[in-house]
Write a structure and sequence with these properties.
The chain is built from 7 helices and 6 strands. By secondary structure, it is α+β, with helices and mostly antiparallel strands. The strands form 2 sheets. Strands 1-6-5-4 form a 4-stranded mixed sheet, with helices on both faces. A two-stranded antiparallel ribbon has the order 2-3. Strand 2 and strand 3 form a beta hairpin. Belongs to the thiolase-like superfamily. Chalcone/stilbene synthases family.
Length: about 230
């Protein structure tokens, strides 16, 4: 079935390796501290479970079927994940505004526009799953992010394509290579996966990060960002 060949055109090969430690003596050497991990899994919903699904086509050939409901399911998973992570990272003022709006919608007028918290008050950097231009566009719009906030995601997609979850680490390397990662900066990584899953990781930078001389962007970072035309 030709539709099941589509993932072969979308996905690219990527990889990342990390060294994690929970030993106090490694604190002075660590670049980042893992502050929060929030995992959202919608596998109990058959529609979500099968929206990205490996199966045989009528000819017996194995491929990956992408459901037409994929973007809707991804949005639902993201909403659930953000609802969980919000209270962990947002300042009290943003949480109160969100709570007041929620109460107002329930008691006074359900047509009130829901308040979208300003996550820029909680993070300096955003690493968005580079699964496609539409994914980045939608998150930029809904989270009210600037072009610079999504620059790492767009440039990673432009250069490497959709490398799935490893794209987050190409993006982190991009920010480091640009010399933007400073001590105390907070990073929000948002990723999606089959199942259906939406996961968030929050990191805090322990020191000013020097520009890498051997990372994936070392030989070309001076050429980025590049202009990507609207299509």
């Amino acid at each position: 079935e030709r539709a099941m060949l589509l993932p072969n055109c979308l996905f690219r090969m990527g990889a990342a390796a990390l060294l994690l430690s929970n030993k106090r003596r490694e604190r002075s050497r660590a670049k980042y501290k893992l502050v929060h991990v929030v995992r959202t899994h919608k596998g109990s919903d058959d529609r979500a479970y099968k929206c990205v699904y490996e199966q045989e086509d009528p000819q017996g050939l194995v491929g990956i079927n992408l459901s037409k409901d994929l973007m809707v399911i991804a949005a639902e998973a993201l909403k659930s994940n953000i609802t969980t992570i919000g209270p962990l990272v947002l300042p009290a003022s943003e949480q109160l505004l969100f709570l007041f709006t929620l109460i107002g919608r329930k008691i006074f007028n359900p047509k009130w526009k829901p308040y979208i918290p300003d996550f820029k008050l909680a993070f300096e950097h955003f690493c968005i799953h580079a699964g496609g231009r539409a994914v980045i566009d939608e998150l930029q719009k809904n989270l009210q992010l600037s072009a610079e906030h999504v620059e790492a995601s767009r440039m990673t997609l432009h250069r490497f394509g959709n490398t799935s979850s490893s794209s987050l680490w190409y993006e982190m390397s991009y920010i480091e290579s640009k010399g933007r990662m400073k001590k105390g900066d907070r990073v929000w990584q948002i990723a999606f996966g089959s199942g259906f899953k939406c996961n968030s990781a929050v990191w805090k930078c322990n020191r000013n990060i020097k520009t890498s001389t051997d990372g994936p962007w070392a030989d070309c970072i001076d050429r980025y960002p590049v202009y990507i035309p609207e299509v």
